Inverse folding.
């Protein structure tokens, strides 16, 4: 296929590097570089989607409000995107950044609309639609040079459906996601975007001769998993793309947290989420690790300070 001048320009133009998208999630200078993939892995209810909202807001907010001011594509495969929640988080962050001499409420509304104009939402209901979406994404990348981030919630939404349709053949079960991963790999190489994707943990009662089990040995992060359920189980092409893996979990806030943080009685029972990050950047052959904790508030994700112990 012949490449147009617009496609060539879009490929060669430097996109915003998101290495500093959230320093509290990644080791020092270990954030995702151009063309890298971050997988947020964990069971349901461990704050993965809230983290995506946090990263999304950080990207679409203007620089004056602490944002990166870049375009984002959100691929919603679970049909769980809560736009009211997202707008509420953006509004809270704009309010927090507002100074005494800031513009009026009408101007704030204009800023909010500007933030939302940087977001493109796509819904998918099958692996085939996800593959078509990634094909469509190349056209979007060509027309929007400010697009730097792709969010997928979640990458394994159609895992069981694909297994069912694939019958007894493991190759057929993984065929569609493998094609998606291969196409995504080309987009990462050509357009240097950054990808964050959630992956819901699945409960497996066996660890035998399945393709998923054997493929976990090929992942660079298999050794960082502490339990069988934490091991990568998606197809090998996807695992080869992942350069950063965030293991998400949840725990109850300790009883002395409110006193330590000067919080209210309500904060004593607030849910604490923990993220353990394993990074292996393409620019470095060494692995780095970091653990972070946070609350989910009305204003979005609120990280707990490094001096606060969560036990």
């Amino acid at each position: 296929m012949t490449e147009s001048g617009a496609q060539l320009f879009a490929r060669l133009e430097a996109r915003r590097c998101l290495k500093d998208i959230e320093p509290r999630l990644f080791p020092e200078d270990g954030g995702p570089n151009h063309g890298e993939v971050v997988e947020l892995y964990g069971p349901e209810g461990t704050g993965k989607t809230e983290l995506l909202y946090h990263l999304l807001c950080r990207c679409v907010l203007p620089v004056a409000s602490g944002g990166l001011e870049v375009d984002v594509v959100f691929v919603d495969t679970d049909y769980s995107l809560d736009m009211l929640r997202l707008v509420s988080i953006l509004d809270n962050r704009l309010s927090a950044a507002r100074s005494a001499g800031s513009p009026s409420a009408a101007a704030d509304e204009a800023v909010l609309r500007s933030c939302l104009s940087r977001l493109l939402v796509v819904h998918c209901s099958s692996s085939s639609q996800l593959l078509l979406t990634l094909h469509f994404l190349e056209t979007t990348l060509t027309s929007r040079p400010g697009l730097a981030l792709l969010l997928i919630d979640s990458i394994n939404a159609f895992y069981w459906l694909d297994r069912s349709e694939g019958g007894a053949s493991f190759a057929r079960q993984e065929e569609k996601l493998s094609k998606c991963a291969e196409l995504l790999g080309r987009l990462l190489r050509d357009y240097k975007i950054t990808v964050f994707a959630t992956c819901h943990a699945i409960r497996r009662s066996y660890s035998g001769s399945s393709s998923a089990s054997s493929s976990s040995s090929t992942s660079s992060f298999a050794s960082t998993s502490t339990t069988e359920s934490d091991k990568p189980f998606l197809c090998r092409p996807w695992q080869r793309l992942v350069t950063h893996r965030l293991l998400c979990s949840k725990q109850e806030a300790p009883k002395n947290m409110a006193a330590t943080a000067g919080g209210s009685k309500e904060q004593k029972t607030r849910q604490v989420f923990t993220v353990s990050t394993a990074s292996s950047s393409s620019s470095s052959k060494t692995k780095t690790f970091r653990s972070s904790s946070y609350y989910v508030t009305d204003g979005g994700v609120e990280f707990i300070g490094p001096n606060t112990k969560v036990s």
The longest helix spans residues 170-191.
